[in-house]
Design goal:
By secondary structure, the protein is of the alpha+beta class. Helices cover 15% and strands 40% of the residues. The protein has 2 domains: 205 residues, no CATH class; 117 residues, no CATH class. About 10% of the residues have low confidence.
Length: 330
């Protein structure tokens, strides 16, 4: 067969012709995944590589996982052990060629060519013979994700039941995956699928998520609650530290003051798309404020005034679908 070459055998070996074949039925197809080390048939090893490629082309992750060296229990391989491949647009026209087997070292490698969404790609596929004589695929047609977007606990591929735990190490089989958010506070940023290919690093925008409208609404609600809580302030300085500036209206007053605060117009704010844990108060808004109490000399104070929002950063925390924030005036 084209491209099938056996590496030179060491002299002194005694070759046996009665090697044991271990046949495993994966996904309804019979696949030779174990070969006795003494059979030395390159075509059998190539058949394993081709079955692995066919499994990925067919969207059969379970069969591919049975041929590859992976650990589904780890975060690195969690996508491989999910329903993501079955939901993805899969590779087509895959061909394995330039295949070589080194039986002495228990290694095999070749080239796999395939198409995905109209583009052509090539990759290297490698196999290794284990101590039991089984040949398994160690690399090829699976790629590391381009971005660490697992921190939000939201991003997944269609077909997954849980968010990706750690995208900095996670891998996925070749295919075009639709990025989804499992948390309503976030939404996918890219408009197209994420193509997992040797060129994945060129397609990283499709893998990002950004704060959704619900995220912004939740931040707005938390910000309104924060300003309402400023009524607990007992001085103009304390009110400023809470994020509301009443200017010179009562700057000269101190003592035991009480504030009643109505939000006339909420100040505008922005959330950093790339860093949704941070935001900024960008507008002044307007507050109607009643001041009562006694000043430092014990005189009664009753005054109506207005206030504005100070410049401030927002430190935003997310736990599940709950948002909380700290306002940091400056």
């Amino acid at each position: 067969m084209d491209g099938e070459v056996e590496a030179p055998r060491s002299r002194g070996w005694i070759w046996w012709v009665t090697g044991l074949l271990v046949v495993a039925v994966l996904g309804g197809a019979g696949t030779v995944i174990g070969l006795d080390a003494r059979t030395h048939n390159p075509a059998d090893v190539r058949a394993i590589a081709e079955d692995y490629v066919d499994a990925i082309s067919s969207g059969d992750a379970e069969r591919a996982n049975g041929i590859a060296v992976i650990d589904p229990a780890t975060e690195t391989d969690e996508i491989l052990d999910s329903g993501a491949l079955a939901e993805a647009e899969r590779i087509s026209g895959a061909v394995v060629d330039r295949f070589r087997v080194d039986f002495d070292r228990g290694r095999a490698f070749g080239r796999v060519s395939f198409e995905l969404e109209g583009a052509s790609y090539t990759d290297r596929i490698e196999l290794e013979r284990g101590s039991s004589g089984n040949w398994r695929v160690t690399s090829g047609l699976r790629y590391q994700l381009p971005y660490d977007f697992g921190a939000s606990g939201a991003v997944a591929f269609a077909g997954m039941d849980e968010a990706i735990s750690d995208a900095s190490t996670a891998t996925a089989y070749a295919g075009a995956y639709r990025v989804v958010s499992l948390n309503p506070l976030y939404e996918p940023e890219g408009s197209g699928p994420l193509r997992m290919t040797p060129d994945t690093y060129l397609d990283d925008r499709a893998a990002r998520v950004r704060p959704s409208e619900r995220f912004d609404a939740a931040v707005g609600e938390e910000l309104a609650d924060h300003y309402a809580g400023c009524a607990a302030s007992r001085s103009a300085d304390a009110l400023f530290d809470c994020g509301i500036d009443i200017g010179g209206a009562v700057d000269d007053l101190s003592g035991d003051l009480k504030f009643s605060i109505d939000v006339v117009r909420m100040p505008e704010f922005e959330v950093e798309p790339a860093e949704p844990g941070w935001g900024t108060v960008t507008g002044e808004g307007e507050f109607a404020i009643s001041v009562t109490g006694r000043d430092a000399r014990g005189r009664t104070v009753e005054r109506e005034t207005t206030g504005r929002a100070t410049s401030a950063d927002l430190e935003i925390s997310v736990s599940g679908t709950e948002v909380s924030l700290d306002l940091l005036p400056y």
